[in-house]
Design brief:
Helix content is 29%, strand content 31%. The protein is built from 8 helices and 11 strands. The protein has an 8-stranded antiparallel barrel with strand order 2-4-3-10-7-9-8-5. The longest helix has 13 residues. It is globular.
């Protein structure tokens, strides 16, 4: 279980790395506290990372921090404009209706990117967010003890933090453990006026883990997980291809970080 806090706005960094440094560069990006996920990839882009950053911090990230990343040769930084489907909404078909219902717990919906700076939190709220960042499964009793408050107060503050978009809790799973060992990033450039039609075909697809609209070279980045390469081919060559101008596929070689949680090597 992982818990994210801080800025709700984000950028997608597509990195090209020096020969032999893909693992080092992806690991370096994953070690950032503001990194949500970092994947090593096949193709022209060697790795991708989502980084939560506000407007005021974007110039420092692009001009100073990314160029100093070990092994990084070139980086394409694309602001996330809208989340069409979040990983927390992924419902692979192996789940039973009862399990799906259990996942539909509040807060509902998807937190959309916002350029507004995060609201200043109290010392108690910051203590709760720190505790959950270290252990997303921490109980209310543990949160109350570490924040030095009563359990009832800790429960109220936790509910407030979640309801107001200060905390995002996700169950972090490796798709391969669920029977989906082939994972890929799809980089999509749509034909004019096809965003709504494409979104209708993608959102809710059992193989789509995440779909986000970008400002940059591509209109969309779509993360998928499938049982095998044949299924990936069927997905990529499906009916939505008539809506697409170009589509590039990058297979995920290794996930160094998922939903704010470093993954074991």
């Amino acid at each position: 279980m992982s818990t994210l806090s801080g800025h709700n706005s984000a950028v997608l960094v597509r990195a090209e790395c020096a020969v032999g440094s893909v693992r080092s560069t992806t690991t370096a990006l994953s070690q950032r506290a503001d990194c949500v996920y970092a994947y090593a990839l096949t193709g022209a882009v060697d790795c991708v990372a989502e980084i939560r950053v506000g407007t005021s911090g974007l110039s420092g990230l692009v001009l100073d921090e990314l160029p100093a990343t070990i092994g990084l040769v070139r980086a394409h930084t694309d602001p996330v404009l809208r989340v069409l489907q979040s990983v927390r909404q992924w419902r692979p078909p192996i789940l039973t209706p009862h399990q799906v219902a259990a996942l539909e717990a509040p807060p509902f919906g998807v937190q959309q990117p916002s350029s507004e700076p995060p609201e200043s939190l109290s010392a108690n709220d910051r203590a709760i967010t720190r505790s959950l960042a270290e252990d997303g499964r921490a109980t209310v009793t543990t949160l109350a003890r570490q924040a030095g408050i009563s359990e009832s107060t800790a429960r109220r503050r936790l509910e407030w933090l979640q309801a107001n978009g200060h905390l995002w809790s996700r169950a972090v799973v490796e798709p391969a453990r669920l029977g989906y060992p082939v994972e890929a990033m799809l980089w999509i450039r749509l034909l004019p006026g096809q965003m709504d039609a494409f979104s209708a075909k993608v959102v809710g697809n059992p193989y789509v883990r995440e779909a986000i609209a970008l400002a940059g070279e591509f209109d969309l980045a779509v993360n998928v997980a499938v049982p095998d390469q044949a299924t990936l081919y069927e997905l990529v060559s499906g009916s939505w291809r008539s809506l697409v101008q170009t589509a590039q596929v990058s297979v995920v070689l290794q996930a160094m970080k998922r939903s704010g949680l470093r993954t074991p090597l």
